[in-house]
Write a structure and sequence with these properties.
Number of strands: 15
Number of helices: 1
Strand order of the largest sheet: 8-7-6-5-4-3-2-1-15-14
Radius of gyration: 15 Å
Largest sheet: 10 strands, antiparallel
Order of helices and strands: EEEEEEEEEHEEEEEE
Pfam families: Glycolipid_bind
Length: 187
Amino acid sequence: MGFESCFGIDIRWAALDPAGLEHCRIEAVSDGVTIRSVLVGGRGGRDYGISYTIRCDETWAVQSFSVEDVGGIRLSMRRQDDGWVGADEAHDTRFDGASLIDLAGTPFTNTLAIRALPDQHESTSAAFRVVYVPFDDLAPILDQQRYTVVEPYRSYHYAAVDRSFEVMLPVDRSAIVKDYPGMFRRL
């Protein structure tokens, strides 16, 4: 058993507080998976309009991503060996060992962590170093996150390692978040 395919589908989430909307498309490409999305919302008293593209290999490991806001601020990074390089091709040592990304205003990037768990048995848990991108300034920081299988292929526990935040995430058979309590709801 494994996760079901989700290629060629469109997904929408409503942001709950403040109100917002995301439209996300997942596509199979010759060398893996491409995710494209647009969203509008707000966080920390600031409204935003964002588009992002994530490119993954066939195992759903992130190879590159770009995020752009409507004001023209853009962040692009790609994996190189055990680290990340920016648009200037400079190796950013802050993110050495980071295997995942987390984009602040979308529940989609939780899918990447759930699929990255070493197995899908109940109580399996893993901590990840993550490139976290807040949507207010698109300035990435290193974050540490832990994911635990609660019910295989159905429910996962996410906890921030370095701060007090945790949430239960119900997912569909493709590991797409259905409900992010208090933040997002799939439409």
